[in-house]
Amino acid sequence: MNKKFIYCLLFGMISCLQLWPQQTSLELVKQGMDYIYNCDFKQSRLVIKKIEDRLPGSAIPHLMKAMEVFWQHYPVHQREHPLSKYQKHLVDAYQRSLDVLEHDPQNPEAKFLAMASQGLLAESYAESGRSFKAVGAAKRAYNYIKEGASRKEEFKEFYLSTGLYNYYREYYPDAYPIYKPFMSFFMKGNRQLGIKQLEYAAKNASISHVIAKYYLSYIYMRYEYIPAKALRQGKDLHFSYPSNKLFSAMYLESLIINKRYEEATPLARGLQADSNPYLKIFGDLFMAVIEERKHRNFPQAERLYQVALRSNHKHDMERDHLEAYAYLGLGRIYQQKNQPDQARKFFKESLDKAYTKAMKSEAKSYLN
Question: In Å, how far are 77, 129, 138, 256, 299 from 126, measured between CA atoms?
Answer without folding.
Answer: 10, 5, 10, 31, 39
